[in-house]
Amino acid sequence: MKNIGILGCGWLGYPLAKELLKDAYNVYGSTTSQSKIEKLENDGIKASKIIFFEDKIEGDIITLLKPLDIVIINIPPRLRGKIRENFIKKMTLLHAEIKKTKCSKIIFISSTAVYGNVSGTVTEESKTQPNTESGKQLLVCEKLFLEDPELQTTIIRFGGLIGPDRHPVTMLSGKENLTNGNAPVNLIHVQDCISIIKTSISKGWWNVTMNAVHPLHPTKKEYYAQEALLRGIKPPKYITCNEVNSKKVDSTWLINVKKYHFHTSIYS
């Protein structure tokens, strides 16, 4: 299994591709931007411009998929602001194209949003009850691949992604009257995201669904105040109220059963 495709070579997919190259995999990648093709190819990634629409896939998707042993689907739903796409239709088209090839191993990058705004600790066995459009569509797409008996699909439900140039405190800085300050954070560093995906491949973790969230869960109020102080920016201010969302996503299965060790702290 030396040919791996990453659909979505963006903030997570691009560094993942470079790490897989170091492990001597042949890496194929997709991007929606023609300007990124040369950059990817210069790094040794066999790049294609592929754009997913609700009614078609623009680009030569079958040529990209044909040589692959593993497909990593790293395409987030675009459902913020004025954008209200049908992500399910896009993934249904992709599923149909994958079925035309020999590739049967899928890693689908999902989100803890599929659990919704529940209170308490949630594990992979907890009921999924998404309350956002993104979470609802992701859950349907998870099942699309999981329930295909001809595919070996692994679902990775990441928490909030953070990294050197990406942190939610920068968007929260200076905001006031925020709620749920005593709720726990559910975050994961991009380096652990990459490591978990690589480990899933190398150890053959197929046909599983896993939570991937750092085991530290400080409160939002405490955590974002500290992170703002470290960056020299205004901390967000939370009001005291009864918490309506105190979800803590548990990654015990990944840690205790699969013996995964988180490498990168959520603290700066």
Please provide a written account of the structure.
The chain is an alpha/beta fold and 268 residues long. It has a single domain (3-163, 186-215, 248-257), classed as Rossmann fold. Helix content is 31%, strand content 20%. It has nine helices and 13 strands. The strands form four sheets. It has a seven-stranded parallel sheet with strand order 3-2-1-6-7-9-12, with helices on both faces. Strands 4-5 form a two-stranded antiparallel sheet. A two-stranded parallel ribbon has the order 8-13. The longest helix has 14 residues, at 133-146. The chain is globular and about 55 Å long. It starts with a strand and ends in an 11-residue tail after the last helix. The relative contact order is 0.14.
Taken from the alpha-carbon principal axes, the silhouette is globular
Written as H for each helix and E for each strand, in order along the chain, the element string is: EHEHEEEHEHEEHEEHEHEHEH
Q: How many separate domains?
A: 1
Please report which band the strand proportion falls in: under 5%, 5-15%, 15-25%, 25-35%, 35-45% or over 45%: 15-25%
Structural class: alpha/beta
Number of extended strands: 13
Mean residue pLDDT? 95
Counting DSSP H or I runs of 4 or more residues, the number of helices is 9
Q: In this structure, how is the largest beta sheet organized? A: 7 strands, parallel
Corresponding CATH superfamily: NAD(P)-binding Rossmann-like Domain
Tell me the CATH topology.
Answer: Rossmann fold
In the CATH hierarchy, what is the class? Alpha Beta
Q: How much helicity do the residues have? A: 25-40%
Tell me the span between the first and last alpha carbons. 36 Å
Q: What is the alpha-carbon Rg in Å? A: 19 Å
In which order are the strands of the major sheet placed? 3-2-1-6-7-9-12
Poorly predicted ranges: none
**Any guess at the CATH architecture?**
3-Layer(aba) Sandwich
